[in-house]
Amino acid sequence: MSARRGPGRWLRPLAAVSGGLVVVLTALLIADGVAERLRVARESDRFEALEQAVLSDASRAEELAGEREVQTARTMARQERNRAFAWTLLAASAAFLAAVEGGRLLGAPGAARPASAGPQGEALVQLRPPRAVAAGPPAAAGAEPELAFVDEVVAARGASREAAIPILQALQNHYRYLPEAALRRVCELTESTPAEIAGVASFYARFRRTPVGAHLVQVCQGTACHVAGSGPVLDELRRRLEIPPGSDSDVGLRFTLDPVNCLGCCSLAPVMMVDDRVAGRLTPTSACQALAAAEAGP
Amino acid sequence: MTAPLERPAATPLEVRLGMGSCGIANGAEPVWEALRSGAREAGREGVVKAVGCGGSCHREPLVEVVAGEDRSLYTHVTPEMVPVILRRHVVPRGWPARLRWAARRLRDPEEPRPESGPRSLGARIVLENCGEIDPRSLEEYRRRGGYAALEACLDPARRDGVIATLTESGLRGRGGAGFPTGRKWALARRQPAPKYVVCNGDEGDPGAFMDRLVLESDPHRVVEGLAIAALAVGAEEGFFYIRSEYPQAVRRIAEALRQAEAGGFLGDDVRGSGERLRLAVREGAGAFVCGEETALIASLEGRRGMPRLRPPYPVESGFRGRPTVVNNVETLANVPWILRHGAAAFARLGSAGSKGTKVFALAGKVRHGGLVEVAMGITVARIVEELGGGVAPGRRFKAVLLGGPSGGCLPAELAHTPVDFEALARTGAIMGSGGLVVLDDRDCMVDIARYFLRFTCGESCGKCTFCRIGTRRMLEILDRLCEGEGRQGDLEALAELADRVGRTSLCGLGQTAPNPVLTALRYFRDEFEAHLHERRCPAGKCAALVTYTINDRCIGCTLCAQACPVDAIAYRPYEIHEIDDAACVRCDACREACLDDAVEVH
């Protein structure tokens, strides 16, 4: 929607004006061409008549010269006019094309959507990773995460060994994974040794040590989901997202696939959870649609 | 305390909507909005109520209208159906609204029609309040007799009676092992203070969700159960250990604890008795082995969740080296009922060795999945056929999986086995925590065995060698079988490894890990042999051993060609399609897409 308010606001009037201009100019050129033809036929008749008259009466030579002058001036003026029309026509069509194309380019992320709501239908075709990540995780890869949060959490939970798991859970909720620097800070602040923290962080399946994609997709691998076909669902999602072997996220870090043991919604099997939304009774096709819907946003 | 409390007075009029996480997953939220705005229009906001899940997960979203004894149940409710339901049952406030509704009712359709109420065979004990009360209301729980048992326990003279009543009732741990709860508490009571109590809500069995449902739908019952446990054994501190995959359950228990504290049922001076009681929630972090009590305690202490040798049992030395009672959610949910209704009422239900009821999470190929509570002693077949509605038409009921990765399969021939700790153990399966996954003739037992072994192999904490490496070797054999690369002697090696893993592992995870393989080998050996000798998967499930073909029922509609993710089906309208076997990845998309049953799997 915001694109409407930016450059998109004058694109539409521009397209209208330039489009109108193209139509008007084309019409003028055609009309002018027709008028010219009629005029030339009429005037050449008159000129020939004058020429004949001059052959018998030399005093009319003056008149013939005047007529030639007038006709030449008219033709020149027409050519001049046509040239101006043609240039304007070219400029107007260029402006029109630019306005329409520019509108489509600018409009794709925001402006065009409200008109064609309901993207779930055909949208899934483009699950491939072309565009850059729209909304990355708060502390995306590379960037050094701010560590003040670690201090806060430790202050709230205490520095005992027993608090290690709740602290790591709070950190994971905040950073969406456990950055190395944050873990080192935990070791500094609490009684736990680096070995203990590393041990806990690697033992439990919920703790992640690598950044997570913009959307976390938990695919249930419980028994009920397994017999209902969660395997093919997971395979298909990996295939569609072109996730490299050995990785759990696609190249653009848009989606992270996380197979989990059981989400406890067995009567909806096979189930997955895209961020906080449960999608049930999946087929490979509907699972891809659910991802496309998640990417399109609520 | 054994005098049964009278039933609460009949409710005036309530329109209840199940809003457990299963209900929300099924789309209850827009229905809730519609109910609220409809009730507001009628000026009767008070009648709508968000309740937990009553167990009929397969037909959610579920709206139940209760007026005194009359109950009407509407299933698969959509927001569009809500005004019709409300107009049928709710009388609006004020004449203009009444006239308006009466006028609209003339044009209301006949549908939806109410269906019969929740299903159960035998009494509802654990699920007594699930789907009946608002889980976020302490008041409502109290109106239904809640916290009465806890208040009775505050009298020191009666406290010994608690353990005696539980022992008499014959309640056994519902987490799987079936240890008598009364005896566990008596052992802990003799230990010196400080002591701890822990509610084990780390429901790891993939395919079981009764603990989630009880925690979400009736949290105060579990809080009361744990508080009674603490009073009975003399503990002042307790924990709820709930797996992190159940965010709603964690929220509900935390909220219930706050309310109970505000109501004086927890805190430094419980109901003016001078007793001190503090309960807190801890979230798990995704380790199946933490369902084992010593591993759970290690996790509570902030360490890697690895089990240790028992004895000493946690009742002697557990959390912080102090005596600790660990009870399952369902066990604790039984406790308030037993104390309110008396041991005899509980012991009347069930079989000789197993008393009371058991909640099963019915899932898999059954038509009506959900949660069912049955009196012990009822046969598995009755659960599947009567409560679950059997398997889909045209399919054959093949087996049930009981007890998840620690349990095993029970073939259809043995489905007349009663639900009873000992009777089930004799078949090689176990009662387990109550996951009951139904299989039909399209499920391959080798694949199922491999599934469970992959699970236990991945969840093994790595402490015991046979559990760590033995399960991996077993998994490799099963992988080979499913890939059609089985070797001579594989089945014998599998059985031997299974035996060793079971005998040389420290905790329940390793000891029971071979059960799915052993029971599958015992009851479905022919399938294993077909994989090994004939390189064939009789159920058509193992991708490497099947081929997809299209028969002449094909009408050339190209749906399968459009669905194929690898373009293994050429796009030729009005011709019988063909699958390029070399390109096919066996994703099943074509069979799913086909409307004419033209895609065959062999």
Provide structural commentary:
- Chain A has 298 residues and is an alpha+beta fold.
- Chain A folds into three domains: 2-116; 148-203, no CATH class; 215-296, 3-Layer(aba) Sandwich (Glutaredoxin).
- Chain A has eleven helices and four strands.
- Chain A has helices at 2-5, 8-56, 61-107, 120-123, 148-157, 164-175, 180-189, 194-203, 223-227, 230-241, 284-296; strands spanning 215-220, 255-260, 272-274, 277-279.
- In chain A, strands 2-1-3-4 form a four-stranded mixed beta sheet, covered by helices on one side.
- Residues 108-126 and 128-142 of chain A have low confidence and may be disordered.
- By secondary structure, chain B is α/β, with parallel strands linked by helices.
- Chain B has five domains: 14-105, Glutaredoxin, CATH 3.40.30; 138-346, 3-Layer(aba) Sandwich (Rossmann fold); 357-440, Roll (Ubiquitin-like (UB roll)); 445-533, Up-down Bundle (de novo design (two linked rop proteins)), CATH 1.20.1440.230; 547-602, Alpha-Beta Plaits, CATH 3.30.70.20.
- In chain B, strands 10-9-13-11-12 form a five-stranded mixed beta sheet.
- The longest helix of chain B has 19 residues, at 465-483.
- The termini of chain B are far apart.
- In chain B, 54% of the residues are buried.
- The model of chain B is unreliable at 1-8 (pLDDT under 50).
- At the A-B interface, helix 6, helix 8, helix 9 and helix 10 of A face helix 1, strand 9, strand 13, helix 17 and helix 24 of B.
